[in-house]
Design brief:
three-stranded mixed beta sheet, mainly beta, 21 strands, about 375 residues, single chain, 13-stranded mixed beta sheet
C-alpha cells in the first residue's frame, strides 16, 4: 500500500518511483515535519552500467532540488525536501534526510535580495486571518518573474477583516517569524501545507482553518478492539502561565506595553507570569492581541493523547492527517474519564509498517 516517489522541488515533475528499504516521517502543522529514508544502491541494477547508476542516484537525491513523496494507495501523506544524504561505501546504503516545505520559510524573507530596501514595508490593512496568512506566505513563496523563488503552492482566497499589520524590510524578519506573530494572536487559525498530486505533478495547498484545520472524523468505538492501541494521556504544566506582559517599541519608562492575566490564579496554583519581547510592534491593539493570545494558549493545561493506529480497510493512513478528528470511547478506566473524546490531530508520524501515530489534543 505504501509507495514512494521523487519529484523536482521547483516544478513538481516526477523524477522516479523508488523503493526505500527503511524510513520514517512526521507531518505537523505547528512546525516543519521531517524524516529520513534509506536506499540500497548495491543491489540489482537491471544491467545499468555503474557510472550511469551512480549519476542517476546522485541527481535523483540532490539536496533541496528533489522532494521525496510518501503515498498510501496513491494519495500523498508526506512530502519532504531532501536536505542531506549520507552514503556508506561498505554497505552501499544511501540515507536521505528530508524536511517539509514549511522549513523554507525559515530561510525566506518577504523579498529576494534584489528587492531589499530598508524603507520598504509590507502593509496589510483590513484583513481577516486567512488574508494575513495568505499575503505573508505569498510574499515568501511567489514571484511571477522568478522561477527559482516560486514553489508549486496553491494559495487560498483572500479574506477581508479587521486586522492591520505592518512589517518593514529593515526588521529582517523571516516569513516564518512573520507568520508566528499572526499565530500568537487570539483566535488565530491553524494552517498547513498539504501535499497533493495534480496531473502527476507534486503541489502543496496552503489550507487555513476556521480556526481548526478541516479533516475527516474517524470513530474508534472500542479502543481495545479497534485499530487503535497504546492510548496514553499526558498533562504537562511546564508552559502554564497566569499572566503575560508584552513589551513593544520604546525604551525605559516610555516603552509600549500590554498585560493580560488572571485576576486570581486557579485554586492551588501559584502566580506564574511571563514577559514577551515584541520590540518591532508599535501598535497598542496588536500588542494587546499578542499578550492575550499567549495567555489563551497557556492559561490551562491541555491534555495530550498518544495513540497508535494500524491501518485496515476502514481506517487508512491517508485519513489520519493534521486536522483529522479521532473520536475514541473509553469506559471503566482507572484514570481516563468515561465516554467519548474527540481528539484533534496536530501531527502524525509513520514508517514502513501499517501503523501510524497521530499526536492529538482533546477538543
Amino acid at each position: 500500500m505504501w509507495s514512494f516517489q521523487i519529484h523536482e522541488t521547483l516544478s513538481g515533475d516526477l523524477v522516479e518511483r523508488v523503493e526505500p528499504s527503511s524510513g520514517s516521517w512526521r507531518r505537523a502543522f505547528t512546525e516543519p515535519g521531517s524524516g529520513s529514508h534509506v536506499f540500497e544502491l548495491r543491489g540489482d541494477r537491471d544491467n545499468v552500467p555503474v557510472g550511469q547508476w551512480r549519476s542517476m542516484w546522485r541527481s535523483m537525491t540532490q539536496p533541496w532540488a528533489r522532494t521525496l513523496v510518501v503515498l498510501w494507495s496513491g494519495t500523498p501523506v508526506y512530502a519532504g525536501l531532501i536536505s542531506g544524504r549520507k552514503y556508506d561505501r561498505k554497505t552501499g546504503r544511501l540515507s536521505c534526510s528530508h524536511v517539509e516545505v514549511r522549513h523554507i520559510l525559515r530561510r525566506r524573507f518577504m523579498f529576494p535580495f534584489g528587492e531589499f530596501n530598508p524603507g520598504t514595508q509590507l502593509h496589510l490593512a483590513s484583513k481577516g486571518f486567512r488574508g494575513l496568512i495568505r499575503a505573508v506566505a505569498m510574499a515568501g513563496l511567489y514571484r511571477p518573474a522568478s522561477p527559482f523563488w516560486n514553489l508549486p503552492v496553491d494559495f487560498p482566497a483572500d479574506q477581508s477583516g479587521s486586522y492591520t499589520m505592518t512589517w518593514w524590510h529593515y526588521q529582517g524578519k523571516t516569513v516564518e517569524e512573520m507568520l508566528a506573530e499572526i499565530d500568537r494572536m487570539t483566535g488565530a487559525p491553524h494552517w498547513d501545507f498539504v501535499p497533493k498530486l495534480v496531473a502527476g505533478k507534486l503541489r502543496w495547498e496552503l489550507v487555513v482553518g476556521s480556526p481548526r484545520l478541516p479533516g475527516p472524523l474517524v470513530e474508534l468505538h472500542d479502543v481495545e478492539e479497534s485499530p487503535a492501541s497504546e492510548l496514553t494521556v499526558t498533562e504537562d504544566g511546564m508552559d502554564q502561565i497566569t499572566g503575560a506582559l508584552a513589551f513593544g517599541q520604546g525604551a525605559e519608562a516610555d516603552v509600549l506595553w500590554a498585560i493580560h492575566g488572571q485576576d486570581e490564579p486557579l485554586t492551588g496554583t501559584p502566580w506564574m507570569d511571563i514577559a514577551l519581547s515584541e520590540k518591532t510592534v508599535s501598535d497598542q491593539a496588536q500588542l494587546a492581541r499578542l499578550a492575550k493570545g499567549s495567555m489563551d494558549e497557556r492559561e490551562f493545561i491541555r491534555p495530550q493523547y498518544g495513540v497508535s493506529i494500524t491501518a485496515d480497510d476502514a481506517v487508512t493512513p491517508a485519513l489520519i492527517r493534521p486536522g483529522t478528528t479521532i473520536r475514541v470511547y473509553t469506559y471503566g478506566d482507572e484514570f481516563i474519564a468515561d465516554g467519548a473524546k474527540d481528539l484533534y490531530t496536530i501531527a502524525v508520524s509513520g514508517d514502513m509498517s501499517y501503523t501510524v501515530k497521530p499526536e492529538v489534543v482533546e477538543v
